[in-house]
Every structure is written in structure tokens, then in C-alpha cells.
Amino acid sequence: EHGSTANYKNIFQINNNNFIVSGTNEETQSNVSFFITEINGEFKIKELKDGLVLSADYKNNQLAILFEDGLVFNGKSYKINSLDGFATSISLNSDASKMFVNFSNGKSRLLETKTFKWLNTIINFPDNKSLIFNTKGKYYSNFQDVNDYLFLTKSNKRYTLTEYGSSLYDPVSILSDFSEIDAALKSKIEEALSIRNQLKKELPKKSVA
Question: 0.85 exceeded by the pTM?
């Protein structure tokens, strides 16, 4: 208990000695959150900004906290501007250079924490189908009917990805959003893409009756 009575809805463990609790103050009906540190059996409590904490993650000595109205990363506040509904959870990579933000409509977006710029958007469909497209204009999908979900506009004209060609399908570009790709893997992917594109160019042979 800290001050008045609160109904704690969410508890997030940061590491072995620190965690965040968040809930509703039963007297004021406002959402409150606290950062709690345990040292030698004693607890130190620090009140965070007003609002309910939806998610939190801690990697490489860097802390990210998602509130209902935005995100706090290493003590600095950011707004999550998106057309994908409201943010529901966050996750940092191992060195905290990248952050996944999951949204209420099922989409996920990857951002770079140094600049807080979006890198790509991930959409997962039933039957393990996935579509990823990035801010460089490239995409990757593991299914064929991608034109039902993604299209290109150029000079105010709309094109399907098939109409525009295969240059936008680029797994190397997508993978590089997440981490650096070693030269051997990059070479293998590019070789596979070259074969894929060549097969697409070849006309189907007509069978002889």
C-alpha cells in the first residue's frame, strides 16, 4: 500500500530487484503507477506519471514503459502516432536499439529507439501467413495473394505489386531492419531471389497433346 488504497491491475517485473505496479486509486478513481525497488529486504517506492501502464520492457540497462497516452523510454516521453488502433504492448530487442509495438488491430510495427522512427509494419494473417513492408518501399510475404493487402501509388495512380514488377519484393531489405545480415546469408538470399525472378519471367510451356 502506498498513500491511499489502490486496485493494482498490472505488475511488470523489470529485473530481480525492480518492478512496476499499476492500477486504479479507489478514492479518486484515477490510474496510478509506481516503480518499486527492493534492496536488502527493504522497498523504495517512486510514483510514476499518472496513467495505467499497459506494458514495460527492460534490456541493456534501458527501460521502456507504455502508458495509455504514450511511451516513456529512458525517461523521455513519446507519442505513438499510428492508424493501427491503440498500442497494447511493447518489446525491446537485446541491445534496446529496436522496439516492437503491438496494436489493437493485430498489427505490429518496428521502430528504431535512437530516432524513434518507424522501420516496418508486420501483419499476421490466419494459416501462418505474414506480410512485412518497410519505409524503404520494400516488402516480404510468405503467400502469393499479397495484392489483396498491399498496393503502390505513383503519380496519383494505383498499381498492384504484380503490375509494378518484382523489385519491391526484397527480403534482404526487410531483414536488415531487424539486424545486420552477414555477407554469406545476404548472398544466398539474393541468389534465391534471382532464381525466383527468372522463373517468373519464363513463360509456361504448353503441353503437346
Answer: no
